[in-house]
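Example record used in the benchmark description.
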Amino acid sequence: MSFFHLSLAYFFINAPQKIADQNIVLIFGAAMNLPRAKAFMHPSATSAFLGLIMGFLGITDLTAVSLPEEIALYHWGNQGIFFREEFADYLVRQSLSCPPAPIRLLMFFGIVAYTYIFKPGGMGSSSVSLLPGYTEGLANSVVFTWAFIEMVSWFWIYVTLRDQRRESAIRLMEKRRAEEESL
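Model output (structure tokens):
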């Protein structure tokens, strides 16, 4: 994900039209009947700002991934729920991992849903809008494709973290049992 964000940052700053002209953006846009994003035809202050945000996300995620495993699991676990040792027994007994989805997954699901529902001619578009003029620019093929790729990626990360949490809880339980037996 970090390199995806860094790549997007580079193209948003230097050539945003290359993002808008990607096959996946065109296919998703056509499949969902979304309009093309006209704001990405030429570099602008807005696309440069998006590039800076994507670069920031890429660098911070890359930094977080380079942390030791225990700290990284704690950091990424805090994206959705807190994992504490007190719950290790419960997690192993119930064979559960972290039930709620991470915050980023839910956020991108909301963006995907909003983009699809409020597209021109969509279920949520009407003559009366809650914020007329402010959010119409979000319902386009670039935003939908970006949010959809992020949502699928964060779902995959969530499932992977859930499995790692369960394995960590089992290792912690085995460590505790070994300590109790040695006493």
